[in-house]
Here is the input.
Amino acid sequence: MVLHYNPAEYETKKIKFSIFSPETILSMSVAEITIPDTYEEGYPIDNGLMDQRLGVIDPGLRCKTCGGTERTCPGHFGHITLVRPVIHVLFAKYIYEALARTCEHCHKVITEDVKKRPKKCPLCKKELAKIEFQKPTTFLINGKEVLPTQIREMLSEIPDEEVEKLGFSPQNAHPKWMVLTVLPVPPVNLRPSITLESGEKSEDDLTHKLVDIIRVNQKLKANIEAGAPQLIVEDLWNLLQYHVSTYFDNETANIPPARHRSGRPLKTLAQRLKGKEGRFRYNLSGKRVNFSARTVVSPDPVITINEVGVPYEVAEELTIPIPVTKWNMEELKDYIRRETYPRAVYVIRGDGRRIKVTEASREKILEELKVGWIVERQLIDGDVVLFNRQPSLHRISMMAHLVKVLPGKTFKINPVVTPPYNADFDGDEMNLHALQSEEARAEAREIMLVEKQILSPRHGHAIISPQEDIVSGVFFLTSDETVLDKKEAAKLLYKAGITKLPKPDKGKYYSGKLIFSMLLPDDLSVKFTSKLGKEVVIKNGKLIKGEVDSKGIEQYIIEKIFLMHGPSYTTKFLKNLTDVALEYLSMKGLSVSLRHYKISEEHQRKVRELLQKMDKEIENLIIKYKNKTLERAPGMTLKETLESLILQITSKTRDSMGEIVVESLGEDSPSIIMARIGARGSILNAIQMSAVVGQQVVRNKRLWRGYYGRTLVYFHPKKLTGRERGFVYYYFSKGLEPDEFYHHAMAGRESIVNTAIRTARSGYMQRRLIHAMQDLVVLEDLTVRDAGGQIIQTIYGGDGKDPMFTKGKEEYETKPKEDDVDTV
Amino acid sequence: MKEEIDVLNYFLNPKMEVMKKQEVEKLLKEYGIEKNQLPKVLESDPVVKALKAKKGDVIKIHRKDPTGEYFYYRVVV
Here is the structure.
């Protein structure tokens, strides 16, 4: 069948949602289903659940209703006549509303609010019955249970005008239809049976449920006809209600879910639609895409931040459509002629036919190629692609990169672009999308390119900035002692593409500051205090004073350069800075060994002394606590006061270790320098490796859980000293005692559990937020409007400012004033 | 204990006023919208009551925050 889709002809003008009336169900039904079975000797049973009139699922057969084949027959509904009506669970709430809001005598609407049902009808003055709704499907009138038949009668008696007043449309959704008398049987297409390898047929969950319904329905019918006692009839009726309820929704509160023979709950109608794996989120809003690739990412500091290293195997598979013009005709013909890598894979003719470029078709295509045709060529260097890492919480979780085909089977990115993606290289995988239209490529290049995202749209600070070794390299390069001979200076400057040496400033030698200044733009002037507390001064692109650390690069240099000179200049600067810094760092050398975490005997003694002092303080507190002489802090119990005081002591003790460790390891110890300049690690890391690990906590309290009054059986119950409550006296390079190790694991587990819970919770919150705001848009006049044109904000954010450019733009746009740096 | 609060001059409430007809027309023209596309405020809102505004009136709200002052408009419904 050829589908001719003409959008104008099929334009959706309106959508109407309504409830099936029994008449509608009957009119669209092609078969009444009465037999609770599917196949007999391999053939579908007439009037059974697989009746051939309901559609075809077996290839080669024809539909008994429409004569269509497996491909063309859309399937047809059947119906089951219920012997006794049942409540539709999903509408029970509305049935209650309709009942409680009307008078059962005059059938008029008497209240807006179901909770405010008066005792007497204000219109006919008659006594009103008390109506209660017992979830999920039971209604009580004056405390007595009423049967669905009665409910249906009551709803039928409400006149049309009153139905309308209740908010229902009597033509499209009459409340009486919410009590089911006939049940539609979905076409077989919706519940196909699966033939197992053994030749056995396995039915869909919905079919199973329908079998149950028909079976009970039949039994109920037989009992009523045989004149069985009311009690038995009602039991069966309730059973029918249960089956119909679970047929619609098998996760209703207070109804035990219907189960498969294996004990697995059945997946019924509501379950097919609901949730992450439901029809909406999984099949409709979750679409899969072509022209994409996914593999592991690994670092490559040599490529620029804008590039992405793409494996040859990926470049070969992905294609980009290029429309033929008279200007690129020859170029595209070259691609068609080629038999190896950058070649054309398909050609799309003017009439839309797609021809594969093969040995056989090549000559013909070359001959016929015309302007207006499209050539699909393989991905080559310089193509714009989108690159993305899940979870995409940000707009910068997806950025445009330029392809660079590289050997290897992983995507390569410059390690400096990991923060926006929140990626690391411990096995992270990322997705790549080859853009298929010129508009998309232009938009990606102009808006989404990595270099345009150097400043975070959240706070306006640089989010793409040098890290780790680059920071170390810059720090050592700019330090006061650094002097380089001519050969070294030339080597470094060559890395930045500078081939003319400046005049040496230290006699025959060049200072590191001079080399660094060569990279800076001439108009950069900043003054700031570094992390080490020293003043750093850059005037007219010359580093005059101070050593540059992570704070200086991130918050001053990169940011200012970006605002003054724009994205591509900053990219080049980053590239030069990285290359020079890394080259200098490899020349100088930076390494750490176990030796760098070994503190001297004397300092070890100091550490032990501090710990003993801490133990004594804790013991004193405990004694005071036991004597009840401890003063209770406001808002806390005595025990809480004690715990809080002990925690303060332990953290104070650990902090005071910092001085000892720095003193012993030395200010020039690599790990201390790295921690101080913000390249890697912290002083706390150094303390834990060389002095003491310190107090372990769970939920901000010292450890307490496990056995009665203690964390492990080896301790005395209720003992409150440090060791028992998770203070770790040893340090990582020495190794932990078994109980200490266990305590450390206890605290470590908490942070793992917390991150697991936090991601799940914040993910859900973000989903809700995005859903609420997805179609708000900021217009040219800076008003925020929704899809319906409603104004949400008269000016975006109350000030019309883009947070990306709120960090002192005015200051940087004009050239810095001279007196900014005059104090030097 | 019941204490009367002057909602129009209460320190937590921004300054609000009912707009004149010409002003409203100018505003709607400026944004290119119909009146019903403005944000809404209920007639039963205490400030609206205090301003004696009627259904269909547009209230101009002088909002202030650390970044400056701007106007917000709500139509009484």
Observations:
- DSSP finds 24 helices and 31 strands in chain A.
- The domain at 292-453 of chain A is CATH 2.40.40.20 (Barwin-like endoglucanases).
- Residues 738-773 of chain A form the longest helix (36 residues).
